[in-house]
Amino acid sequence: MYNKYACIFGLTGSVGGEAERAYIKKTYQAVPYEVPQFLHTCDNTEKEEAINRGVAILKRSSEMVDEVVKAAKSSYTKCPVLIITRGSEGDELNTVYQRLIKDIANNAEERMPEQPWPASRGDVHAVQLLQERNAQGELMIDECNAIVEHATKRCYTERREPYFRITVTDMFGGRGHDFDCMDEGANAAGGMLVIATSIPDAREWTQWKGRTARQDRPGQFLVLLSEEEEPFSTEPGLAPLLRGMSADAAINELLRRKDASITQTLAAFEGQQARGAWQNEMCEKYYAEKPRGHDAAWPSEDHRRTDIKLRDMLRVPYATGQKLRDAASE
Predict the structure, then answer these.
(1) What is the CA radius of gyration of the chain?
(2) Dist. CA 131–CA 93, nearest whole Å
(3) How far apart are CA 101 and CA 82, in angstroms?
(4) Rounded to two decimals, what is the model's pTM?
(5) What number is the average pLDDT over the span 233-240?
(6) Which terminus of the chain, N or C, has less C-beta within 10 A?
(7) Own/partner pairs for 283-292, CB < 8 Å, 24+ apart?
(8) Where do transmembrane segments lie in this chain (predicted)?
(9) Is the CA virtual torsion 291, 297, 298, 301 positive or negative?
(10) Domains by residue range for the chain, with CATH
């Protein structure tokens, strides 16, 4: 289909890593152009990048959860906190959420109220879950906007002590949601803090970091990982290697490894796509030579033998277009 157009123009917020870029360029002959962010085009104005607050690799997943709670507890009185977990994998989303409820929301020594307070769109919790579906499998899309809006708003205790909500999510909450932190006090403290418990591929990672430091505001992120999870669980020497690197270098190495696995996946997909293109070309030429109406019986009475041959050929995964053409000419 792509070959029928002289030019196709597309826009995306994040193309991905080197593997995706190379694939798009090779497969579609795409010419990429990176449009600078608006603030980068303004005189005397600079776009602040999100600050890397560190990367920690813990021995056990339980220790990682402890560190997540510790980081959230030390930050929620100063800035909004968004925690991006691995979701249902290892029940991590629920585990982190319940620990935050226990250690912060239900802790009399903390500022958060134990009970939610009513609002026009339902109860508002100090520790809130942002997910596509709830535990009952019901879509939460209608509630998402309210949750995101509440996530960056300053709250006060009865004694007028300030704090911000903690939002726990999975990959669903790591992209496409506008956490617009306008609070001057929070931005003075570094802006919204994003805590990630895994490193995804480059495309997703760009999205995750993009939840903070939006527009002309500051932002910060912290990465807390567990040796009991991938990729460390199958590569025993990886954690010590990354601990010897800077935080940025450790993240880049994990992204590079993700990129390598994506390269293998795309290589397999490239073969499938090429076969599809060859088959499509063959079908177009075949039906141009043997036209019939869209509602005509198949196989047709006039071309029964070749119709069946075409069907059988479409079932064969030919390695090259030339082999397909040779088979068609027989």
Answers:
(1) 26
(2) 10
(3) 15
(4) 0.78
(5) 95
(6) C
(7) 283/310, 283/314, 286/310
(8) none
(9) negative
(10) 46-244 (3.40.50.300), 272-329 (no CATH)
